[in-house]
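Our platform keeps sequence and structure together, in a single record for each protein. Because each token names a local backbone shape, the row as a whole describes the fold. One such record is reproduced below, unchanged from the form in which we store it:
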Amino acid sequence: MSEDLAGSKIGRYEVVSEIGRGTAGVVYKAYDSIINRSIAIKAVQRGGIDESEYAQALGRFKREAQIAGRLNHPNVVSIFDFGEHGDVAFMAMEFVEGRTVKDLIGKGEKFTPEQVLVILDALLAALQYAHQKDVVHRDIKPANVLMSAFGTLKLTDFGIARIESADATQGGEMLGTPFYMAPEQIVGKPVDRRADIYSAAVVFYELLTQKKPYRGKNLTELMYAVINTDAEPPSKVDPAWAAFDPVMRKALHKNPERRYQSAAELGQALRRAASGAALGAGVAEAAAPAAREGQGGAPGDPLASVGAVEKRTYYDKDMIFEEGTHGREAFFVVEGLVDIVKQVEGQKVTIACLGPGEVFGEMALLDNTFRMASAQARGVATLAVIEGQILRDRVGRADPIVRALLGRTVSNLRQLTDKVLLLERHGKK
């Protein structure tokens, strides 16, 4: 059994305290006295294991350091150093003070779709970046996603990661955590980035529904379920989550060719589904009292029964609103596509294309605010239009439809503002 290294030194690093133990070694909080910062150290001691195991651990640390060293991203834990000190193989990395997503799940915390998306946005951003660098993680799970005390999420543990262009295409081994592994990974077939995307979808499913998509009394039953059965759709847990059903069905498909082909693509699908689920839930809740009181609306048309929604049809290139004009309406895409266009150095640049379920024009919620960009139809588009004054009147009554729209406002504005700032800074054409 390994001795506690707290209070000792590994190279120039002063070991402070143990953080946790796993099959890959013991993780300690340490201090780098040369540059005055806290770090984390993963260590394996030669004592207590045979020489071949120790050599494998050292090789694993070297491989992880080399692979993770290719990555420089705010949502990926940075690797600083690796090597040997006496009878200890070690790897020094960024110290993230906080807890894992697994810890959050273990505490029984329930998450709203918006909160789950915050976690998945960071995870998928890390994966998109890693995949662009040809790195496949192969062990995506809640225990490998850290959340700092400030809410920043970091992907860690590239111990079984592979370079996709090299040995990631090899099969014949089952590495990872079965609950989160793609079917091809379980049977030892070659895996690529789509196995990571599958695993990220399992994390989303578990955070949203509070249960794993596949279960079994033992490892054999679990593996059989992953390979041969379909996951229960999220709407079986909560009908309000029906918008996520087709996304999960595609993301968890047994055939990698029929899954989302990039982490960014899955992220876009999840955000579209969240917009539809939020507005749909708000509309349904708001429509119920109106239906009971016999107020307006055709049967089967919850948008009309709210009494505050108008549907409009726009045709290809029709301008919905122009940049610089006052915002007095919010929009929900029912059918078709809408381009969000920004003037950059005299050029019109499309910075987003919105589809069914997306909300835009939320600045109508604010008085005397100018549009940050223009919106125009791409092909035929049907929109649900909600007057800003009606929305403002309803805020005081905590109307569900207002809450649904406001729930998307912060994230939508953040994403749009970031894109606009990048465009203005770099003059991207």
Summary: Residues 98-261 form a domain with the Transferase(Phosphotransferase); domain 1 fold (CATH 1.10.510.10).
